[in-house]
Amino acid sequence: MKLAMFKPGREKSRPGILWKEKIADLNAACLSLEKQRSEGKTEFLWEDLIDFLEEGERAERRARLALAAFEKGSLDRGALAKGRGKIFFDPAKVRLLAPLSKPPKILCLARNYVSHVQEVTGSVARPPDPLLFMKPTTAVIGPDDAIVVPPFCRKLDHEVELAVVIGRPGRFIPEDAAMNHVAGYTILNDVSDRDYTGKKDSHRLINWFFMKGQDTFAPMGPCLVLKDEISDPHKLRLRLWVNGQLRQDSEGEKMIFKIPQILSRVSQFVTLKPGDIVSTGTPVGTSFSTKQYLKAGDVVECEIEG
User: Fold this and answer.
1) Is 135 found in the same domain as 278?
2) How far apart are CA 32 and CA 167, in angstroms?
3) Domain boundary residue, one of 72, 96, 120
4) What CATH number corresponds to the domain at position 236?
5) Shared domain check, 221 and 194
6) Number of structural domains, the chain?
């Protein structure tokens, strides 16, 4: 099941289910199916996908019942005829938002592919522990939104990444139980300012926050794919194009630290909560090595497929 956040015209943003060539209003579909909508009143079960994830298995069951009703064509047509809400929308006529615009935490891995380690350091030495940094929620934008190029930035970089979305809270999670805490996956472009703050200081430290945490530096989406659709996330293929030119192309199995290791290690220090995003790093092909830095007007396309 693929979930998304979307905004039809001037109406309120809402969670949706991607089904065939349409996007369905998740609230309207579930309420129509459950026959709980009242005349002249708009009700929301979930304001966003954080609400959905916090409800846990019950929310997923309700969504799956709605999805089954789509397939059978058994939604309550009478309720729709009485003006109780439109369910299906054309994705081309709505605005797709980031699936999680205000996640509790955005944790990102640096140097989690040997190929990327080599392109940025010149060495194939693997880090002994996952190297992490955080992005603020102000960095999050939707899949079709524009990245703002800072006026002082001359070396804007791209990084396609598989982002893990947490579904169940946990602390001190063992590796063999880590995947039980995963809700699903989305795409994150870890945009980086290599020119302004990518330089090492006299102590040879990098200011990760300034380099990675600026506004609009976390384009995300277009959807949250629940984990039941992906048998092995490490076998997914990550690709990124700039103006139609393929720049990055790799598989998740080339990660140094795999997802269970990452989640277990992170949970030794912080509680993972529903809606948290843990982005697993990028492969080779960034502008750092190609020197083909992004500029205003460029079109960046990210894709993950399996």
Assistant:
1) yes
2) 26
3) 96
4) 3.90.850.10
5) yes
6) 2
Tell me, yes or no, whether 291 and 167 share the same domain: yes
From first to last of the 306 residues of the chain, give the pLDDT tens digit: 999 999 999 999 999 999 999 999 999 999 888 774 444 455 679 999 999 999 999 999 999 999 999 988 877 554 443 444 689 999 999 999 999 999 999 999 999 998 888 887 778 888 899 999 999 999 999 999 999 998 989 999 999 999 999 999 999 999 999 999 999 999 999 999 987 544 555 455 678 898 999 999 999 999 999 999 999 999 999 999 999 999 999 999 899 999 999 999 999 999 999 999 999 999 999 998 899 999 999 999 999 996
Please check whether residues 27 and 122 belong to one and the same domain.
no
* Same structural domain, 114 and 92: no
Identify whether 269 is part of a domain: yes
237 and 176 within one domain: yes
Q: Residue 125 is encoded by which pair of tokens?
A: 């030495």
Question: What is the span of the domain harbouring residue 220?
Answer: 106-305
3-state SS, the chain, equals CEEEEEECCCCCCEEEEEECCEEEEHHHHHHHHHCCCCCCCCCCCCCCHHHHHHHCHHHHHHHHHHHHHHHHCCCCHHHHHCCCCCCEECHHHCEEECCCCCCCCEEEEECCEHHHHHHHHCCCCCCCCCEEEECCHHHEECCCCCCCCCCCCCCEECCEEEEEEECCCECCCCHHHHHHHEEEEEEEECCEECCCCCCCCCCCCCCHHHHHCCCCCEEECCCEEEHHHCCCHHHCEEEEEECCEEEEEEEHHHECCCHHHHHHHHCCCCCECCCCEEECCCCCCCHHHHCCCECCCCCEEEEEEC
Show the CA angle centred on residue 306, arms to residues 171 and 106, nearest 5°: 35
